Amino acid sequence: MADLRINLAGIESPNPYWLASAPPTNSGYQVQRAFEAGWGGAVWKTLGEPIINTTARFAAVGFNGKKVAGFNNIELITDRPLEVNLKEIYETKKRFPNHAIIASLMVEPNREKWHEIVKRVEDVGVDGLELNFGCPHGMAERGMGAASGQQPDLVEAQTMWVKEAAKTPVIVKLTPNITDITVTARAAVQGGADAISMINTINSLAGVDIDTWNTIPHVAGKGAHGGYCGPAVKPIALNMVAECARNPHINVPISGIGGISAWRDAVEFMLMGAGGVQVCTAAMHHGFSIVEDMIDGLSNYLDEKGISSVQEIIGKSVERYSDWGNLDLNYRIVARINNDVCINCNKCHIACEDTSHQCIDMLTDPNGQKYLEVREDDCVGCNLCSIVCPEDGAIDMIELPQEQPPMTWNERQAVLAGYKDNEREAAK
Amino acid sequence: MSNGNRAFISLQDLQRNFDEVKSGLTPAEARDESNRCLYCYDAPCIQACPTGINIPSFIKKIASGNLKGSARTIMESNPVGASCARVCPTEELCEGACVLNDSTKPIMIGDLQRYATDWAIKNEQTLFKAGEKNGLKVAVIGGGPAGLSSARELALLGYEVTIFEAKEKAGGLNTYGIVSFRLPQKVSLWEVQQVEKLGVKIKTNTMIGRDIQPEEILANYDAVVLAVGMSKVPMLRIDGEDLVGVHDAIQFVEETKTKELSEAYIGKRVAVIGAGNTAIDAATCSVRLGAENVKILYRRTQEEMTAYDFEFEFAKQDNVEFRWLTAPKRIIGDEKGHVKQLECIRMQLGEPGADGRRGPAPIEGSEFLLEVDVVIKAIGQTRFTDLIESFGLEHQWGTVKVNLETYQTSNEKVFAAGDVIFGDGQGEAMVVTAAQQGKKTAYAIHQALKNSIIETA
Amino acid sequence: MSASQEYFEEKEKIDFLFYRGFRVTRVTENLDGAAVEFERTGAAGQEKEVLHLQTADARKYFSSILFHQQRNLTPAE
């Protein structure tokens, strides 16, 4: 069986699955249950000045009858006194010395306040700190969370203050509610962060009740934006992790967060550069026991690939992620329909006909049997038909031999510069 | 999927008729169905499974693409889980307990279980590793579901296990007694192989009393598991039972799984006596062997019939006729000694007897003749009483007496599980129950012997 | 006319000019595509041709040829 242990910036855990700082890590009781179920670590629900929550805190977005495709919350950080949390962290760590406990922290952007909380949580034996610069609601109005996480200078300064006091590794948790996450990630690195984690939740409104005209959720008839997470946000999170992982200036480990629900998601995040992952929504939907398959599936995957340690896969796909301008314009794929598998729903035809390049013909063979065929010369290889196809194996995207050797957009523009008037002029 | 309608019966290619009738789920079906599971906490399906398979977990693993993990979750709790996926009365067990019965429709747990175990069979997976040897030896007599299950658990606990199996192959009822079109032999043999891979020795063609004596076993092993199941069908005790064309249902089914299929039944008229699951199996086998007409005769009514509902439905789809309140009185042969007719008598039900079932009584003068070529007896099974007695075990009409907590017999070194303890108020005759009893005997043995492990270590 | 047909026609024109010894001297890309100027000096003196390429595949094609010509001309350093 493959070794699932990870070491993220010096924080060790028996497997890469940590519970993210969120409702599941609110108390010692919960975190201990999670460790019993098999979770490798937990980022304690954010510690800070205890807040007051509303009732009606969560809402979910379903998709075509499936519940919780996305999840929205307006719950804030811990509402319990620091002393109580610290006592429970201490007890939990004592019971589970080999599991990672990371304290998530959020205080005002004030050096002394950061120093004070860092000292107090480190005294009870946490393995690391995670600075919550991402919470998008409630705390932001008070100048904390996302409000400070959206300003690179504040990220850098606060990270520096924490590093002045911290003895354990410091992870900076970043908000996705920003144009370019690599900017704040670099600020965190410049501030001395040992690692970064992403993404926190995305500003969201789950819905509007079309009968009552209330927001979903609403608090006594009023709503406020929440933070979006769950399976729906995974592609956004994965991109942000990948952008940071491939940025040469961001050379610290990444803890991946965002829509991770099963072992495959974890593999994807780790291939894209995450040194470990954090999970919340999936546990809230199904309970802590889901980690059993996450561990088992990951372990079987690694065994099948002949990989002895999960750490070996970290970042293996990063070099395959680049800018659009570096993609080969001469690479060609086309759709091919396997008529013996096709169930003739014609969804590919209409998708192509109405919304792509009109290259799937509806034909009738000599026996009067209807069939679909791709005119490969006209197919631009967009994948749409295979995306809408409901039947496994009915449409394959086939690689064609290249007519021309590889050439990227950047290479094309460079060579054409020599043939263009304006650029010739500029060169003179 | 091809279930639902009567199978096409080919008279040219009988083997085809014995192909598994129900096709497995396609990957797309398995994906959709597994994603429909709610992943309940403290799930009622787990409670309803005699072996306690963590059903939501194995289904989640199908959904996540962890098929090896899924198969392991199934087989961990049930060493004959691949067979049970096909033969369990799921609507009475896991699927009957599914919470979705109250909202939409239950998850097809049996089919998903088959999907995961079929994957493991196809991909030649080895799911378990033997425990570190603890120096103790256990003999398991009988390589059927109970014996295999017990041997598997004991091997995981580090015991050196030897199975003594009278037949050519292990697997018991799953290998020989359940019709191929419901349970292909290769499924059962894969389960046997999984147990063998743990270092369990299986001595086949080895009969107690003939090839090895009970005393020898009792002397050479630290514990013994008696899991010999049941024997052949008893005599009807009517005239003509020795005529050519009278068969024992168990042997009849076994022949369809071990020999080339006989063409002797094509166009024949068959009467099956009894209405348990074996009777149904014999009837549907007859149909698949090309019999023109197959009747099941039962002296009570559909109400008292012991066959599962789905078996009954299956037989009806095969055009098997059911004659209730009908008992055989005499088998009449022709001049060559072949079955020619069956004399029957109509019955009526009296007051409920001690077992709660209403007893049948013949209606005087209601005799009638059925034109038949074949009579198959399926009125239950006899016991290996001699074998039980050769071990000196207490029993009641061949049902070995055990402590239902420990499965210990009157000889504290001998434990018993499966059909050998079924009856007389003890347990149920399902494969899945036998598997669970096998596991429990293993744990009971470990409980009894673990102190001696510490001493030897 | 199908998109591929438009491309094949433009490609044919490009190939024909290259075949006749023309070389690209100037490229102007604008909202309507690419104007590619070809020249050759032969017996008849300086000849000039302009192709107005509209299809994406043709614009990719001629530039790909230029790119690989240049790559082959540039000695490995």
UniProtKB/TrEMBL annotation, chain A:
Subunit structure: Heterotetramer of 2 PreA and 2 PreT subunits.
EC identifiers of the protein: 1.3.1.1
Domain of life: Bacteria
Role description: Involved in pyrimidine base degradation. Catalyzes physiologically the reduction of uracil to 5,6-dihydrouracil (DHU) by using NADH as a specific cosubstrate. It also catalyzes the reverse reaction and the reduction of thymine to 5,6-dihydrothymine (DHT).
Pfam families, per the entry: DHO_dh, Fer4_21
Lineage: Bacteria, Bacillati, Bacillota, Bacilli, Bacillales
Gene3D superfamilies: 3.30.70.20, Aldolase class I (3.20.20.70)
Domain 4Fe-4S ferredoxin-type residue range list: 333-365, 370-400
Molecular functions per Gene Ontology: dihydropyrimidine dehydrogenase (NAD+) activity
Full protein name: dihydrouracil dehydrogenase (NAD(+))
Organism: Fictibacillus terranigra
Keywords, sorted A to Z: Iron, Iron-sulfur, Metal-binding, Oxidoreductase
Keyword hit for Lyase: no
Similarity section: Belongs to the dihydropyrimidine dehydrogenase family.
Chemical reaction(s) catalysed: 5,6-dihydrothymine + NAD(+) = thymine + NADH + H(+); 5,6-dihydrouracil + NAD(+) = uracil + NADH + H(+)
UniProtKB/TrEMBL annotation, chain B:
Domain 4Fe-4S ferredoxin-type, chain residue ranges per copy: 27-61
InterPro entries: 4Fe4S_Fe-S-bd, DPD_II, FAD/NAD-bd_sf, FAD/NAD-binding_dom, Helical_ferredxn
SUPFAM superfamilies linked to this entry: alpha-helical ferredoxin, Nucleotide-binding domain
Family annotation (Gene3D superfamilies): Alpha-helical ferredoxin (1.10.1060.10), FAD/NAD(P)-binding domain (3.50.50.60)
Superkingdom of origin organism: Bacteria
Protein known as: NAD(P)-dependent oxidoreductase
Automatic annotation (TrEMBL), chain C:
Name this protein carries in UniProt: Uncharacterized protein
Organism: Fictibacillus terranigra
